[in-house]
Amino acid sequence: MPDQRSPAVRDRWETSITWQRFSVPFAYPVAFTRGLLAPENPLLAETLALREPDKRHRALVFLDAGVAEALPGLAGEIAAHAEAHAAAIELVAAPVIVPGGEAIKTELTHIEGIQDAIHAHRIDRHSYVIAIGGGAVLDAVGLAAATAHRGVRHVRIPTTVLAQNDSGVGVKNAVNLKGVKNYTGTFAPPWAVLNDLDLLHALPRRDRLSGISEAVKVALIRDPGFFAWLEANVNALATFDPAAEEHMIRRSAELHMHQIAHGGDPFETGSARPLDFGHWSAHKLEAMTRHHVRHGEAVAIGVALDARYSVLAGLLEPGQEERVAVLLEGLGLRIWHPALARPGRGGRPAVLDGLDEFREHLGGALTVTLLAGLGRGVEVNAIDPALVVQAMDWLAAREAG
């Protein structure tokens, strides 16, 4: 059909579109070592010198307050290490102590304080920000580093099981805002992740155990052989056998890294969150308890809940959820918390609001990962609240004995 518009109208609304296309490859080392800060260990110096081997590199260290308290000599070890590798490392100041745990993620003033330090010490895009701490500190320092100068080099040194086997190897940097978990943040890959397994010895037993829940989670959705290994080594893991703990952390990190690199959506532009099995309720439970329930503890509960839901929804063979529950309980993790029964809108359990928040965080349709087998995740786009309540009743009954 011929265009009946006048030439003036056609010219006015003529549109020309040119697609700008480019891709940027990301690559960063994830290392495992022991005694990272021992003077004879060259890993940190070699990491800073990856791109410019003949340069002395300026670095500013941010240290988790909980780690500093548990390891009072650590600041001195950092200084001694830098002195031993003075040709490669120039510490611009003593380590800056920052709050650990969710405290650093609940106030944007902490992010501003980190950025103030980056500015005051003239950390530029060829300098380094080094974060030593748990996942919350890595998240917060990573956000500040990613937004200062539109991105300065960030080296993560995770000090918890949860950060070494999961969050520390990823590309997210985020803090909480408006009561929503990880509401404000960026996707910015780190310069490097240096895992020092010796640092785990300073962890309280509660935190050391809770981090294993992320290994259980990723095994359940990606690797049946790893899940069977976790079952076979439950006692060794619960007593922190060094070889078992190291294998658990390494394999969990590998599975998380593989999903980020090969899952097709490393920056979560879609509506799926395939690595977040058990997390829709876990994030809500954390908020409902004002983080008295740790993230790993909440994930253990969420994993057990969604395993039972998978059975009730006809996705998972009955009895398989028992194996999940027995493993988590054998590790010393609870799979029930009274907050799950707390009433919310219309009298339904308040934790169900986590489904709406889970969907809203990414937008689009609700997408939740459930289990089609032990080691095989499947995505669904609807959750039946009545079945969730039945699954919670099952958890409560186990708790009651």
UniProtKB/TrEMBL annotation:
This is 3-dehydroquinate synthase. Its cofactor is NAD(+). It holds the Pfam family DHQ_synthase. It comes from Paralimibaculum aggregatum. InterPro entries: Dehydroquinate_synthase, DHQS/DOIS_N, DHQS_C. CDD domains: DHQS-like. Keywords: Amino-acid biosynthesis, Aromatic amino acid biosynthesis, Lyase, NAD. Residues 211-338 form the 3-dehydroquinate synthase C-terminal domain. NCBIfam families: PRK06203.1. Residues 96-207 form the 3-dehydroquinate synthase N-terminal domain.
